[in-house]
Write a structure and sequence with these properties.
64 residues; alpha+beta; 14% strand
Length: 64
């Protein structure tokens, strides 16, 4: 799979304001945010639009 239009897990974490990528793995386990693609080596790739939508929904739930 090509990763055109996708961002690596570290960039997704940066957009969400997270200190570590481990939190994104927890979000995946809880069914909150899934990577669009996982490489054979385990690198998680996300759609930037999905990450930004998740961020907006999170802010709305918190009343920000």
């Amino acid at each position: 799979m090509k990763t055109d239009g996708l961002i690596k897990v570290g960039e997704a974490a940066r957009i969400l304001g997270l200190r570590t990528t481990t939190t994104l793995a927890r979000y995946e386990k809880r069914g909150l945010l899934y990577p669009a693609y996982k490489s054979e080596g385990g690198t998680r790739w996300y759609r930037k639009e999905d990450v930004e939508k998740f961020l907006e929904e999170s802010k709305r739930r918190k009343g920000l």
